[in-house]
Amino acid sequence: MQAAGTGGLVRRTAWRLRLVFLFAMLAALPYLLSYSQQEIAVLLVINVLLVCSYRLLTLTGEWSLGHVVIMGVGAYASALLAKQFGVPVPLSMLLGGCMAAATAALLSFPLFRMKGFYFLIGSFAAGEIIRLIWKRFTDPFGGPKGLKRIDPFPDIEASFLSVDFYEPVNYYFLALAVVSVSLFVLYRIERSRIGLTFHAIHWQDRLAESVGVDTFRYRTLAFVIASFFAGIAGGLYAHYVGAVNPTRFSVDQMVYVLVWAIVGGTATFHGPILGVVVLTVINEIVLRALGLDTARPLIYGAILILSVLYLPNGLESLGPRLQARWRRWRGGPAAAGREPA
Amino acid sequence: MNVPGERPILEARGLTRRFGGLVAVNNFSFSVHEDAIHGLIGPNGAGKTTTFNVISGFYAPTAGRVLFRGLDISGRKTSALAAMGLVRTFQGSTLFQEFSVLDNVRVGRHLGARAGFLSRLIGTDRISEREADAKARETLAFFGLEELAGEPVSNLPHGHQRMLGMAVALAAEPKVLLLDEPFTGMNPEETRRMMALVRRIRDRGVTIMLVEHDMQAVMNLCDIITVMNFGALLVEGAPEAVRNDPAVIEAYLGSTDGAGHAS
Predict the structure, then answer these.
(1) Chain A within 8 Å of B120 (Cβ-Cβ)?
(2) A229 and A283 fall within a common domain
(3) Nearest by Cα to A41 from A340, A276, A305, A209
(4) Any CB–CB contact under 8 A between B83 and chain A?
């Protein structure tokens, strides 16, 4: 008992040290980057939230094609609230998240009558309808051109502190803080009984239902939570870039989210984060350096095919696999010698 | 020995279920009495499984009603029925195969482990979760599976998986337990042990209704047996009466006097 207790303590301390190290790295990161790379880092942090919120929905076994549109709902709502009603920006972002969640709650009534492939197509259709509404109604959505000159995040002007969020470095830290808190909440949800129930619905929804799990309500819950955080990501995006339009939230963008999630692997919490980070680095640094960045869809497609063929459990499975191989390689001859004993 | 109570706890009245032109269950009525072990048998295609699916809320009845403790429950959701105390099991090893044995039963404790969203988030659901955990282990102990709590389900032999399926259902604290072919695919020894378990569950105050093909098990276990044929009631009675009923023998073995009763 005591041994297990100290073992747990050691593991927890190791975890905390790793986390501190990670945050130190993340804090140092923008100072090692060029200005344009800092801008990419901001978008990357926002995309981490987008893909992690997406994973929460996939825990129930349902894959949506409307997640980026839901992010757009958050972005449009937050932008419009700030522009038209003068709602202060941090609050408008929160309300944008709530708007995205409310949209998801409404959509869940038609969508969760379907499962699997039908849900996938249904979510795509729902997303396209929302995008058509943005395009068709120039007032207030700005039509195909979308919204421009969205209020930026207000600067902090105190006597001792002055932070201008037009600077990518500062916005990076803002996004990092918001996304860290959001990821922590998502992580807690997954580790709680709610997460267990999501998994249960994924693997055997009829059995879960038979012991009292209202599967419709829990699917809706996953969809609403995922959409809330996608909406927050949308708000972060809108007030950073300063413009949103329907094309930015098209199904092309959704495909990138899918590729990040699949290439990273959705079995663990960190898988999709790994996916979006690695693919963004490949895209923005390697391809740009080679002058191949216009070939992004082609190369993403190739990476997707290769990872599905050779790494079906995603990048997250690469670590344990390499570790096992390393152990076998090192322990190989010795273990073979010991075998008869 | 428990004697079945007088009060019906579960009733079907004129139950009918059609699939397009096919009438799977046709004006079928029965009543299950409290503390009984009630068998539902019949030849293949008689409509037993459809009846089970209608009672457990998977299908709504096309006509007729299902009453649970006198309350009309026809067409209610399976999860709502579970909350009222009507829980079913499934054929074969329908389990959360990717979970540990304990986590399977923990999901079964879904209704007993209530907590708000926020308390789950900040971890104040610990008390109710610890209770759910203890209850889950207690249920596993009842089935003699407590030592396998940490094992992944896929490592369990078939017989243990069937018991675990029952443990998941029992963790939901049912008043009536619907068992869908609990003895299928078991050897005689496993069947014997399972029968003893079913009796012990009944002795805990759980009324049991089961669909089963293993005639010997049904005859030995059940207090009362309902026989279905072509979606309708054929005979109902005590095991000895049913065993010797000419209509039942005919339904199972075919007509003895040639083409007289061809349908």
Answers:
(1) yes
(2) no
(3) A276
(4) yes
